[in-house]
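Curious: why these numbers?
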Amino acid sequence: MNYWLDISVWYNQLFIVLVAVYCSYATIRLSLLFISVKHWVHVSANISSVISSPQESESGLKYEGFNLEYSYRFNGKEYKSNKVSLSSFIFGLSLVNNKQLLEKLKRCFRTASPIFVWVNPNKPSEAVLDNAIEIKYLLFCVVTLAFFVYLLLKANA
């Protein structure tokens, strides 16, 4: 009986460690992105597609999000991206629920007007529409990491 209890505790600790490692990675990666984005280059881009998609939050709140794809030229080479914010590089979220931005992008798409994106000069395949620092994601990573480290320390006490 104690054998299964020991395995259960071990699995719980392994899960806590894995979550803490991922949160550490996300926190460090986001911090480095926030620092490096200051050196990214502002270039003109053309929107290939803007697809609206109705979304519903966990609390039942409905909103309209969108998926975006754009192309840009950097150092004579053509690239494509769908990244809207810096958090897209960590969490894979390219969906944004900013209605004003959505309307602006739809207007630019209809009129074939260029938009401006930020391109990583060291890795030109990385580009983002909005390079604003999203403290909420960094804070989420740090708080989650602290919580799981606390759980790990408590489990070992």
